[in-house]
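Researcher: I'd like a structural prediction for the single chain below. Treat it as a standalone chain; there are no partners to consider.
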Amino acid sequence: MRNTQKLHCCSTLCLSTILIITLFSIPATSFDTITSTQPLRLNQTIVSQGQVFELGFFSPSNSIKQYVCIWYHKIQPRTIVWVANRDNPLTNPSGFLKINQDGNIVVVDESSNLIWSSNQTISSTNSNIVAQLLDSGNFVLRRENDLNPENYLWQSFDHPTDTLLPGMKLGWDAKTGLNRYLTSGKSNDDPSTGEYSFKLNINGFPEVFLTRNKVIQYRSGPWNGLRFSGVPEMKPRGSVLTFSFVMNRDNVFYSFGLTDNSVYSRLLMMSTGVLQRYTWIETSQLWNPFWYAPKDQCDRYRECGVYGICDTNDSPVCKCMEGFEPRNLQAWGLRDGHDGCVRKRRFKCGDDGFLGLKNMKLPESSNAVVVDYETMNLNDCEMVCRKNCSCTAYASKNISGGGDGSSGGGCVIWTTELVDMRQYAAAEGGQDLYVRVSAADLVRISNAVYFKLHLKLRNLTSDSSLNATY
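Model: Treating it as a single chain, here is the predicted structure.
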């Protein structure tokens, strides 16, 4: 009996010892939160409540540098969507991510040297502040009992690196003064700030520019109420993706969402200069390229110069619209359209008209003027443009109500030379643009249209006669 008791005590002691050893040897915590008393060590991670995202230290292959990153918890190989200290890696063999005494979330090395900080001015002590990883992929700094997103002290969504996730905002916030944008890494193995950025230009009629060292390489075209006018792939065709654009006195931003939360999608500014949207295919266990830009010759900024129109359905791709001619005939003949087009005749204000162009990517719009009266239709826009002798073109600001803007939606007026236009096939998208031309050019265009229509009708009559004969 005594031996049995000894055996029982020994078993209990051994079990307790094993449990203690097991608890202290776990390299990662299952919690989603870091507190002032519970920092994150180099060999630990936190996982969002729904096990969608994971945060921890990560070292690229063949590197001693350590970065605090967020990645998808269940996807292999590891897909990183955010890096805290991308330009200040930890190079010591140990470090911590913790709540600092000033309330900020910081990365420190083994000697408590500051590597990275959220760098906020916080009025309260750190005792009631936590950092939490959400299922959206957002890493937020907040007061312990305050779950209101409006009261976050800091959030990673306001400081994107190279990836835009569903719910993230690309653009300007008046409250914080931030203009959130994507910047590529230097390479697949080096997440430090690279050459390429994808940034919303809030001047004029807002649109997004892809730049290399601040030089424009590609632009999205402005938002027309349905999509960016230069991204026809955004047309809804049963996609799980939704897109939104907000422009008011407090915010100007673009974001996207998903109608199915089981689907993963991300927009990546790659180190090669390509903007790539990926969607995760669960059955194939791979990231599928969904869309990318720039994708063809006409996506290159100013490919056909001033007043030139780029059209991949034509050969050569550059053309001058009616009333214009190539500025450099020799270069144009050698299929170099960068010098663009010039007017054949100067228009006389009050004795001119407008050439309608369909399925257009609207011109570069940094200096465009937005007349934001939603009741204004295209006829109203024309009247506004006619009264301004500097007006070179106009279009509807918002085509979501009437398709072409004829029923209202506000106006966009250009008073400078028109740059980086593109024409799509009817099935692709784009919208109507009206360019100011001289009265003489309008007469010539009208005569040409009449001749083509007359010729077409004559051919149809001839064909009918032949069919009647046989």
